[in-house]
Amino acid sequence: MQGNFSYYNPTKLYFGDESLKFLKDELNNYGPVVMLNYGGGSVKRNGIYDQVVAILNEAGKTIVENPGVMSNPTLEKLHEGIKIARENDIDLILALGGGSVCDYSKAVAASVFYEGDYWSQFWLKQQQPAADQRLLPVACILTMAGTGSEMNAGTVITDAEHTFKVGHVFDDRLMPKFSILNPRFTMTVPENQMKAGIYDIMNHIMEQYFSDFDDNTSDYLAEGLMRSLITSSRIAVKNPQDYEARSNIMWTATWALNTLIGLGKREDWMVHMIGHSIGAWTHAPHGFCLASVSMAYYRRAMKFGLSKFVRFAENVWNIRPEGLTDEQIAEAGLVALKDWMSEIGLPLTISEIGATADMIPGITKGTICYPAGYMDLKPEDITEILQESM
Ligand code: NZQ
Ligand code: ZN
Predict the structure, then answer these.
(1) pTM for this one?
(2) Helical (H) or strand (E) element with 186
(3) Which of 138, 164, 285, 389 is the most buried (most CB within 10 A)?
(4) Mutation pick for ligand 1 pocket among 72, 78, 96, 100 (CB with most ligand atoms within 8 Å)
């Protein structure tokens, strides 16, 4: 490993189909007022809301509800949540939902006591809260596997008015204090969202894996996670009620983006930058946005990072190298990736998720470009990748 780094992850995890029973003890560590953020109603339909509210009541908490946190949460909704939090003297923000609700809760927690323009400061200027700024504690009860938001400090918010989606990774003060991961809670996730989550996980690993050429323990961990995900995704797509597969997917999602496998690496994240902009224009599930440009992106990256793509083909997809050139091995790896994506039902083009040719200039404009991974892309390269993905 050539990089220099520090590692600290303060999130305590409770995992498994009995994990919710630990909520009550955890609640004892916080004051009486809990802001309960949740989404568009799935938690009411599947009964998880009732279970959580019963525990909050048993623990004697006053619940301040903030429902309707939409998928890909908007700036407008963020303003609303901050207002509610400011009016209610909150002691703990409890996120009940997928990555959108977890991200949103961290965004509220970071902004409640910031006196200036939080959107500009944290998301547009990418600043961290000052050392003496008060932040609210956040905890998550996760209902969908994918983002890793349950154990990281990421917050992705969409400014719908300006068709601009942007993430900010806060420092570790904004990581959830604890997260409850019950794989059984993910069983009611609609099939398309389950698939989007699976590709989101895969792409988080790839974004970190496809950078640098040194022999790095992080890459061996990444390969193991990808192999586990490929195996479990095939099972889950055939039988979404397979607990073992769904629990592996949930656990892999957490480790795919809790900073561990990025240690010592420069990382890439350009598929995410393009994917976020596609999401702002199409409102398609996040993982689908990533999938829809991945083939064009990685075909291009392969030329600059050939030896890593050879390793990906052999170690992740079991491509036999005998008699093949490096280019052929790497290409076979990408074909295996594409076949797996087709097999599990992911979109391979941006037109499949509602993008049209006239959106390409806007999507390009909304894509944040920087030197990353194996390439230093300019806006004209983004346009080409989008055109190749039509
Ligand atoms: O709103 P409800 O009714 O709850 O429905 C949700 C939503 O429509 C539904 N759902 C979730 N759990 C369910 C369920 N439906 C039935 N049963 C359940 N158990 O699924 C839909 C999608 O949920 P959402 O939270 O939007 O999905 P996801 O977890 O993929 O989160 C996406 C957001 O996370 C951001 C994305 O950009 C996007 O805004 N990301 C956050 C990251 C981070 N914090 O590090 C990194 C990622 O790369 C990503 O950018
Ligand atoms: Zn993602």
Answers:
(1) 0.98
(2) none
(3) 138
(4) 100
